[in-house]
Design goal:
Layout: E1 4-7, E2 10-13, H1 20-36, E3 59-65, E4 71-75, E5 78-82, H2 84-95, E6 103-109, H3 115-127, E7 133-135
Parallel strand pairs: 3-6, 6-7
Antiparallel strand pairs: 1-2, 3-4, 4-5
Helix pairs in contact: 2-3
Amino acid sequence: MPSVAARGRGRRTINEINMVPFIDVMLVLLIIFMVTAPLITPSLIDLPSVGKANRQPDQKIEVVIAKDESLEMRNGTEASKLALPALAAAITRAQAGRPAGSTAVVISADRAVKYETVVRVMDTLQRAGVQRVGLSVQLAR
C-alpha cells in the first residue's frame, strides 16, 4: 500500500518504488556468482585429428552425398545412384568375394549437406556390417 503524505489540505499518494530490497538481492546474487565462478572447471572436448593411415586400403568404395542429399556409389570406375535403403545391399555386393577388411568405404559429402545425413549414412553402413568406414576430408589451405 503506498504511503500517504499530508501536505496542506489534501492527501496525496507517493508513487515511488523502494529500490533497497532490489539492490540487496542483486548484490547477494553478484557475490554468489563471484564465489562460484572460479570453482567451475572448463570442460575440454577431445576431438579426433586428421592423420594419415599406416596402410592405405587395397580397394575403396566411395559414397558421395550431393547437395540435394542424393547418394552415389563409386566403385573404381563404376558409378551408380542409390537410395539410402539400397546402399547397404549395394556395398555388401561390392565387397563380396574380397577379404574382410580389405575394402574401405569412404564417405564424401558436400559442404552444404546436413551432418544428420552423413551420420544416417554411417549408421546404415555400420548396421550392414561394414568394418572400415572413413570420412573424406579436404585440408584447409
